[in-house]
Amino acid sequence: MNAFPYPMPENPLEAVTLALFLGLTAPTEEQSEECAMIAQQIADATLTEEEIDLAKATALAKFHLTEKENN
User: How many whole angstroms separate alpha carbon 60 and alpha carbon 49?
Assistant: First the structure.
């Protein structure tokens, strides 16, 4: 059983989106920066600018939905 509470990404776009989302929700600035660095490395190696913009928008939307659900 996977202890990770999110679906495992199946492609680079999903991986970048997840890393950005985890960065937004990270409990510390250090962890947030680490997630951002991972997202940047994957994005630079595999995604177009349009895909990066989509990952950012999707991560932010998921963040806002999560905040709304938790309040």
Answer: 17
The model's pTM is 0.90
SS3 sequence, the chain? CCCCCCCCCCCHHHHHHHHHHHHHHCCCHHHHHHHHHHHHHHHHHHCCHHHHHHHHHHHHHHHHHHHHHHC
> Computed from CA positions of residues 49, 54, 59, 61, in that sequence, does the dihedral angle turn out positive or negative?
positive
Is residue 1 over pLDDT 50? no
| Dihedrals phi, psi of 6, to nearest 5 degrees | -125, 150
